[in-house]
Amino acid sequence: FGFSRGVNLGIIEAFQHGVLTSTTLMVNMQEAEHAVELARQNRELGVGVHLTLTAGRPILGGLHTITDEEGNFRKLLYYQGFFDIDLDEVYREWKAQIEKALSFGLNPTHIDSHHHIHTYGNLPEVFVKLAKEYDLPCRKVNHDHPSLWKGVRSNDAFELKVDRLK
Fold it and tell me: What is the model's pTM?
């Protein structure tokens, strides 16, 4: 939600036809405000925050380890092996993304991440810290370190209701 007008409208159409009940907003993308406007018109749609490190530009400036030479987030490929980033940069950027969602007047229903980046390397530490700080449920929990996730609400599965697809 927020990636493009087409994606936004597709999400709303799916919601209005009973195919989905919830989405997550990429606050750093060019059509985030359009998505928020649509969410306000469709108040029953649950909207979470889709934290990103792999698409678009960060909310904050002056980040060095999570951006490329042009100031864009690094691509997913960077994280698919050994990577070296400043976890404080990640914390500050993800916190800024949550705060931006709140500044839109949204009451986020949950957090997740683009490309499930929150499951890579040490990023779960930052993700869990923010989930606890904002008391937000999480989607796609990494169960490799169960003690890390203690006290964090999450889903175990998703359900597709085929009878609703007409």
Answer: 0.89
- Two tokens at 138? 């999480």
CA distance 22 to 13: 12
Tokens of 140: 């796609």
Residues 95-124 pLDDT 10s: 999 999 999 999 999 999 999 999 899 999
Determine the residue type at 41: Q
Q: What is the C-alpha to C-alpha distance for residues 73 and 79, in angstroms, rounded to an integer? A: 11
pLDDT score of 165 more than 60: no
Superfamily of the domain at 5-164: Glycoside hydrolase/deacetylase (3.20.20.370)
DSSP letter, residue 125: H
Q: Which of 11-20, 74-83, 143-152 has the lowest mean pLDDT?
A: 143-152
Question: What are the extents of the domains in the chain?
Answer: 5-164
Contact 52, 82 (CB under 8 A): no
User: Is the backbone of residue 158 left (phi > 0), alpha (psi -120 to 50) or beta?
Assistant: beta
Backbone φ, ψ for residue 22 (5° rounding):
-150, 150
| CB 49, CB 98: distance < 8 Å | yes
